Every structure is written in C-alpha cells, then in structure tokens.
Predict the structure.
Amino acid sequence: KAYQAATSGCSVWSSKFAPTPETNPPPKQDFCRSVNMSFIRILQFLCKIQSVILFLDDLHWADKASLNVLKFLASGAAGTKVDNLKVIVSYREEEVTDDHPTIIALKKITAAIESQKPEGVEIHDIPVKDLSLDNVNLYLAS
C-alpha cells in the first residue's frame, strides 16, 4: 500500500509539469561510461575523507560490467585517478582458465597500469594455498 500511495502521489505531482518530449536513450556505451564515472566520483569523494580499501571477493563470479568498471578505473582515462585507494581482488585459481573473463580483465588492468607507471601504484600477486586440516584445527582451537 505504501508503494501504491507513493506511486499515485508521484503521478499527481508529475501532472503539474509539461509533458517531456520523447527522446532516444543514450547509446549503451555512453551509459556505461556515465555509470563508471559516477562510481569513480563516489570513490574519489570517499577517498578525500579517508583512505579506502575496496575488497572484491570471488572475482571469478564477476559479470562483464563489473570487470569493465575495474578496467575503466585502471585505464588512466581523464578524471579516473583516485588517490588513497587500495583495491584487493580475490578469485579461485581452480575456477578460472587463461581465457576466463576475470583473467583477461586482470591482464588488461596489469598491462594498463604497467604501461602508465603511475606513481605509488603497485600490483602484487599473492597466491594463497588451501589450509590443511591441521591448520584449520589449529585456527579453530585458538
């Protein structure tokens, strides 16, 4: 009922304005760039207040749009620099192959960063091995 009330209120409110002409939606590419820039502007704002760690777990499940945001962030395109940001991603090696979208995206990100050599930007690959049964028991016991 709250939704219906809000919807009916909106229709009454909008009727006070002149009708808007129909326009074609922006091309998908422009829309995606706009969304990516909005995300980056939010990160830039937050990182001005304090350092931010963006941790993306299970990147092997990421969709194409999410991977594109990461590539855009690393692209060095005008206005995409974000100070005080650390990005940490994790993925399961057994879930990906060399032609998996996550690996392809990470290779492009690495290449983009290495070609630009931005100050203060480092890439580290830290392989994490499975815990043994003894390690799990030790962890649970502590």
